[in-house]
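As the next step, I needed to go through one protein, both as residues and as discrete backbone shape codes, included below for the reader:
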Amino acid sequence: MRFSWLRSICLGVLGVAVAAPASAQALAVAESHFDRGRADMLAGRYETGCPALAESQRLDPRPGRLFTLAECEAKWGRIATAVARYNDYLAMVDRMSEAERAKQSARQKIALGQRSALAPLVPQLTLSLPPGAPAGTRVQCDGMTLEQPSLGVALPVDPGEHVVTTQAPGSPATETRFTIDRSESKAIVLEVKPPAAAKPPPVKPPAPAPARAPDQGPSGLRVVTYVAGGLGVAGLIVGSVTGWMALDASGVAADNCRDVSPDRARCKPDGLDAGNRAKRLGLVSTIGFGAGVALAGASALVFLLEPSPRRQPAPEVSWELTAGQAGGGVVVRGRW
């Protein structure tokens, strides 16, 4: 039991130690905002001073910060906001003890006097929707949404320019801008645009007729076929010429050689040269014939199997002959 009590104390101390830096940081930031906001207020820069004071009060609410913020709003001319701030400050003072309230006596007196002087000057604005406005129509005044209880009744606003937007479900938003002065009461019946009519589906235009493709020249494969066929024909010609030359050289060798045994022949020098020449020409003739036949056969096969390029059909021409009896002439009509 004793250890459990000790552990609870340690956990509590640890929680305070962990939370303390965050609280100290918030206080430091709030103090920085307050100092900057008060300096801007004293220099007449209310548009930056009042927001800084408001942020300081949000981070670290204190009576002095709230009173200074109310003073800034009053000097800025936002008297409706200033009256609300003075009311918040006076309500905070009423909840204090007598000792704490005594420290705020001077500020409390100023706040009461400022509230009494500014309250009659606060403009009153009444916003209403037109009869027949669709249910669910949204109304926003200066970015703040106004629900149904806020419509049709006078509301305190700051003097100056205001922007009100209305938007019915499924309708475009309508914006209304106006200016209101001190002590002025203004009633505005807002405009609400009806829901936008459904647009008919777009009609697609008819697809344009396909353009006639121009006649195309021979394809790359057909060009290769033509080249291979030409080489094949050249090979056949070379084989034929060299074959004829080999036969001629063989004849010369036969005239200048005689057999001395079944396996040996004795040749004159001219016969020996002719025999060697016949062998070389015979080899060239064989290679030329083989390559020529192969290339010619392959080109012919590819030429027969490849589909021919599509050509545009020629215009149809028809003739109609009509013999007319008037004047004894003959009428000839043509249609393309």
